[in-house]
Design goal:
Length: about 110
């Protein structure tokens, strides 16, 4: 099971599905960071996401490398990196495209309180 307070990288489709299923059961807010190793803004936002994960153990933070898990990125229609998808009980409730720190923090606060 996932450690609380960290960003969990999903390296296989199975681990991705496993994380989503456990999140759906727990009814936690899930923030998925669709990222790429070559993406400058992704590298900029990664430590910020890690800090948020430490401060908010009630939120599940997942990271998917679009080059590593192409099928997952395609399933979720990811066109730009970073893209953050917000999920609750398996449904998309919000989205942030780009390394927009303030908007990301606001939306996490908004949806984790609900």
């Amino acid at each position: 099971m996932a450690e609380e307070g960290q960003v969990i990288a999903c390296h296989t489709v199975d681990s991705w599905k496993e994380q989503l299923e456990s999140a759906n059961t727990s009814k936690k807010l899930v923030v998925v960071d669709f990222t790429a190793s070559w993406c400058g803004p992704c590298r900029f936002i990664a430590p910020i996401l890690t800090e948020l994960a430490k401060k908010m153990p009630n939120v599940l933070f997942l990271k998917v490398d679009v080059d590593e898990l192409k099928s997952v990125a395609e399933d979720w229609a990811i066109e730009a990196m970073p893209t953050f998808i917000f999920l609750k009980e398996g449904s998309i409730i919000d989205k942030v495209v780009g390394a927009r720190k303030d908007e990301l923090q606001q939306k996490i606060a908004l949806h984790s309180a609900a």
